[in-house]
Amino acid sequence: MATSKYTSDGSSLEVTQRYSEDLFDFLWCPVCGSREFHHIVFEGVFCEACNTQVEIKQAQDKAGTDEAVLVTFSNETTWNLHKDSRRELPEGTVSLKVIGGPGAREIDMWHPSPDDFWEPVQPGEDLTDEDSDED
Ligand SMILES: [Zn+2]
Questions:
Q1: In angstroms, what is the span from residue 63 Cα to ligand 1's centroid?
Q2: What pLDDT, in 10s, does the model give residues 77-118?
Q3: Cis peptide before 90, with omega less than 30 degrees from 0?
């Protein structure tokens, strides 16, 4: 069995700090496309632009891949979610698994998977071009 470097209780802040520097260089906000995040001690990590919350957990299910992390974005704290510069997450939350070490990270999977109904906003994507006929 793979052993975790972190205990399972109360360690999310430690994990966040452990991964923050290069992981947050890699990540972007799927709600607005921003690459800027800020870390509020004891509160968590939030998108600088839209305040979407980001949670980092060490992924437990890849034996031998101790760099795998699970990143969850949540709309609960998002500001102005229904502006046209934002895209709401499916059911308000989306997770992605990031594998690989510093400088070589890649996204292993999204949950739920991007599909015809939803795709993560890409950095630099211009959402104002999009026809949004939501009611
Ligand atoms: Zn954002």
A1: 32
A2: 999 998 888 999 999 999 999 988 888 899 999 999 998 789
A3: no
